[in-house]
Amino acid sequence: MSRASISRSYAVLVGIESYTHTRKRVKTAEEIVVHEKDKLLHPEKARRDKEAKQDKSRSAEKERLYLQQQHKTQEQEAQEGTAVGKVGEKLSHALGKLKFRGDSTSDSKAEDQELK
């Protein structure tokens, strides 16, 4: 490479980077396809593989428990929030229909100019 031009060296480097990037993407896509196939055809094997890959440390277990608890609280808030959310939507829709304005004199002048 020492005798090659800079542009040619750059082209080689770009080619190598894109080649490695493409190989990595193909490899991950292959792993995903094989995993999905195993989930459909051999669910027990897929479950065992998932458990084998799972981190067994205490901190990872604490994190999983925390995320499960956080997910449950979000679901509860979402269920409670649907009733409140519907009332809030109705209220904001009603207020939107009323079109409250801070200064009615300046707004009326602006509307008059828009109409002209």
Topology:
Blueprint lengths: L5 H36 L1 H11 L4 H41 L5 H12 L1
Helix pairs in contact: 1-2
Protein described:
- This protein is an all-alpha fold and 116 residues long.
- The protein has 2 domains: 1-54; 59-87.
- It is built from 4 helices and no strands.
- It has helices spanning 6-41, 43-53, 58-98, 104-115.
- Helix 1 packs across helix 2.
- The radius of gyration is 30 Å and the shape is extended.
- The mean pLDDT is 81.
Subunit arrangement of the protein:
single chain
As for the number of domains, it is: 2
Measured on Cα atoms, how large is the radius of gyration? 30 Å
Give the helices and strands as they follow along the chain: HHHH
Helix-strand makeup class: mainly alpha
Could you give the count of β-strands? Answer: 0
β content, as a range? under 5%
Mean pLDDT: 81
Low-confidence stretches: none
- What is the CA–CA distance across the termini? 72 Å
Précis, in short:
The chain is mostly helical and 116 residues long. The protein has helices at residues 6-41, 43-53, 58-98, 104-115.
